[in-house]
Amino acid sequence: MSSDPAAIRRFAIAIDGPAASGKSTVAKEIAKRLGLVMVNSGEMYRAVTWKALQENIDSSDSAAVVAMLGRIDIQCGEIGMSSTCTIDGENPSDELRSEAVNSNVSAISAIPEVRALLTTLQRNYLDRTSIIMEGRDIGSVVFPDTPFKIYVDADQAVRNARRSDAGEADSVHERDTADSTRKNAPLVIADGAVVLDNSHHTVESAVEAAIAILKQQGLPDIYLS
Ligand code: DC
After folding, report:
1. CATH number for the domain including 180?
2. Is this prediction's pTM over 0.70?
3. Range of 113's domain?
């Protein structure tokens, strides 16, 4: 992390949780309310997965994926208040939620070298700005020292319904199992995280509940006006 003294005033809010728990929606709304850059770390894992698919690399062939990492140029930054990444100059945003990416992203994200590279890019955001970042290991691995940590959960049936309502083919349960049982940086409730059960909230009430948790965790009032 940066030795820049201004970095002391910057902070990261970590929002973790399983697939389709509603964490992106909640994180986006909090980002708007607090004027923070919203970083979607899942999109980074999806972008690497998209690139591997483009190169016809099997997601179970970790040696080939690691070799690909050495060849590609990943640049992550923000446009406005949202994160964005390019790989070799291309922004795959439209293709990140394809069925092929959904079914290969857990295997790719279990590869330690992929995680090491993306964790560094994720931490680099804090060198530039305060952020709210959502993912699986943000409170446990990427920013373990932040006091601001929420784990957004929801019932399995609610999460399945959210994905199919969005017209997305996604085996949420299989992805969760893979993401929670991998050796490296599995999905866990991070030390200090407060669980927000988002099964029956509206977006608005989930955001209110999340903001109440952040206040309890010491978020300065100036962000809450
Ligand atoms: O949040 P999402 O569903 O778009 O994430 C896609 C996949 O990326 C998820 O199944 C596991 C992986 N991921 C991860 O391993 N660590 C993160 N911090 C974010 C996502």
Report:
1. 3.40.50.300
2. yes
3. 12-217
| Ligand 1 site, CB within 6 A | 19, 41-42, 45-46, 105-106, 109, 135-138, 175, 179
Convert the pLDDT of each residue in 5-50 to its tens digit. Answer: 554 589 999 999 999 999 999 999 999 999 999 999 999 999 999 9
For the CA of 97, the closest atom of ligand 1 is 4
Structural contact between residues 114 and 158, judged by C-beta atoms closer than 8 angstroms: no
Q: Name the token pair of 128.
A: 């530039």
Q: How many residues does the chain have?
A: 225
Closest CA to 144 of 185, 103, 112: 185
Among protein residues, the one whose CA lies closest to atom 13 of ligand 1: 42
171 or 70: which leads in pLDDT:
70
Smallest CA separation from ligand 1 atom 15, residue: 109
